[in-house]
Amino acid sequence: MSTPDLSILIPARNEMFLARTMQDILAHIEGNTEIIVVLDGYLPDPPLPTDPRCTVIYHPESIGQRAATNEAARLASGKYVMKIDAHCAFDQGFDVKMIAKMEDDITMVPVMRNLHVFNWVCNTCGMEIYQGPDPKSCRNETCNFDKNGTNAKSNFRMEVVWIPKTNPQSSAYRFNKDLRFKYFPELRAKQAKEGLVETMSLQGSCFVCTREKYWSLGLCDDSWGSWGQQGTEVALKTWLSGGRVLCNRDTWYAHLFRTQDGFGHPYPGAGESQQHAIQVSKEIFMNDKWAKAIHPLSWLLDKFWFALKEVGDQDARWAEEDLAKLKANTFTFPKSEPSRSTEIEPPQEGPTKGIIYYTDNQLDPNIARAVQNQLKKIGLPIVCASLQKMDFGTKNIHFHSLQRGILTMFKQILGALENSSADIIFFAEHDVLYHPSHFDFTPPKKDVYYYNVNVWKVRLADGHALKVNDSKQLSGLCGYRRFLIEHYKKRIDIINKRQQDLKSAGKPIKNDGVSKYMGYEPGMHSPPRGVDNFPVASWQSEYPNIDIRHENNWTPSRWSKAEFVDKKYTLGWTESTADKIPGWPSLLDRFSESKGIIYYTDSELDEKIAKPVRDQLNNIGLPIVSASLKKMAFGVKNIHFPSLKKGYPAMFKQIVAALEHSTADIIFFSEHDVLYHPSHFDFTPPDKNTFYYNQNVWFLRTKDGQLLKGWKKSNIDHIPGWKNLRKLI
User: Is residue 714 a contact partner of residue 726, using CB atoms and an 8 Å limit?
Assistant: First the structure.
């Protein structure tokens, strides 16, 4: 690797998501970037990825976060260094986007999002609990996970989702008159929406500067203690030495906040360390004692006073008299109370958003899986309303006694709305792919039905695509939850009354009693045919949603203008193909059946063989479930059988367990002493009821490198597709 432009520094202690953070960085860097990790008194589980761009240093005893960061910086060779926490995710190309706008006197941060890393899943009912400490009980009141009287409060599994949430997006920070970190929404409201913007302080989990400035300004002075005040230290030393602290609003990172009891900081005594750092920072900067400063602290307050004076926190805000005392060097510190938590999660900005997802559970599972996987990536809470019990969303309401129908769908929608706690609701149908930009919209009014009309209809059979100008569909509806609840209550009441009227008149009830004039979409028909007279408005997301047309759509597909009676619905008629729709690369590939690997071992194989096999499998990129006789850190999940002994019965039990714990549709078996070429996994079985075997295999004798295929012999250096085979083993 040539000399890198950027060195990413990661101090890590007892970080369970360090490997995932490194994988995320490796997947999203686009420039010449290296990663330097310092393991501060622990060994990671799961193991870290092996990559020539990564350097890992291990300390058996902890040296502290600041000291670990400095050690990583001493090994750095890039012009720029980026310090990050060991539980972060990143924008694509974040490294080149940051470096492109760097200058030597700048300390820069990306926009900060929240990182949804995992959920706790009840093994009995499937209810999900948002990340936090180990749950003590299932929040599903109907769950009977303790039915055997075992009081099994630990009956939960951690399911990693790794979703960078889109709200909030923090770009402005300050410190109060105790020099403690605070968010700065008053400044953020005045910032430009893109490019570089000034921020008074930093959060501390990520920043970039030149390696020279890192050392010359002492941006990570370990005399301050192991941990605490990182953002304040870096920001003040940058500003007061004549530099600038900027947020790059054209890129982002997402940070996991550990804010709850039992889910806090990995360093023992972090609260005491933070208090020490606060006292040091106050002594130095409130008294203007920092030798490298060319500005006093009051200069920085003056610079941001236009926004500081609007801060509503009366106890900790800077007042005019505080600024005057600071300038006269007569400022006295307020009483300082220890922090209850070492991290502060940014508040949601504006009204909260959520998704309701409704399904009749009769959809092709390949379509359902693709849609659900896409929704999981959005990062908003999902309430799922279904006719069968489902393990999807933050909450599932299922109507097992109802049959598929129009009225049933309306009841599902109402149930989901009532069980959501969000202010703004986005409707999500089970056969529509939603682009993340769809959820950037915020309805300006609370009594209007809003429809996203940027939607393509895609015929799944051949990828044919169609778009028109005005396509107001229920699947694109967005509005305020309370407003929508009232609509659906009234809608269902109207249908129930019509059913009663039809019964009284001795007339048959068709379509569940739903009048064809009522329609599916709120606001599209006025009384007496419709439900109410509230207005309708439309918007277009940056990228389109995809309405998947298949064999079981609720509404019929129309692919020619002749099929439309009202030609206004054909305005803007545009035909294309799925591969040309913006924002949706490899669209049709999403609906192919998922693939996975099961790996089984007796845990007795020589590591000289076992490790290259595991490393090769890790490079494939498919989810791996490992089954072993001893516990091991390999794959997305490991099932181990310590009571079993090596043998065929044990192997068969391992295979069954691995199959049961995998979620993939197509499974590739992998044994612990077989090297699998990536092309092996390109195969897709054409039939679901047939066993398929790859017969393109060479047998390798490790003692002399001889290979045999059938009766054909070869040498280890002459096998096609395996140029580095000798090095692997």
Answer: no
The model scores a pTM over 0.85: no
Grade residue 263 by pLDDT with cuts at 50, 70 and 90: low
The whole-angstrom separation of Cα 425 and Cα 450 is 11
Region for 44 from its dihedrals, namely left if φ exceeds 0, alpha if ψ lies in -120 to 50, beta otherwise: beta
DSSP H helices in 623-698: 648-661
Q: For the chain, how are helix, strand and coil distributed in percent, rounded to 5?
A: 30, 25, 50
Report the SS3 class of residue 246: strand
Portion of the chain with pLDDT greater than 90, in percent: 54
Q: Which domains does the chain have, with CATH numbers?
A: 6-115+166-313 (3.90.550.10), 116-163 (no CATH), 353-588 (3.90.550), 593-697 (3.90.550.10)
Residue 37 contacts residue 191 (beta carbons within 8 Å) = no
Q: Output the pLDDT for position 426.
A: 98
Report the alpha-carbon distance of residue 96 to residue 73 in Å, rounded.
Answer: 19
Please give the Cα distance from 598 to 254 (Å, whole number).
Answer: 31
Secondary structure, 3-state, 231-242: HHHHHHHHHHCC
What is d(CA 518, CA 600) in angstroms, rounded to the nearest whole number? 58
* End-to-end Cα spacing for the chain: 23
Residues 6+ apart with CB under 8 A from 183: 170, 172, 173, 174, 344, 346, 347
Backbone angles phi, psi at 549, to 5 degrees: -100, 120
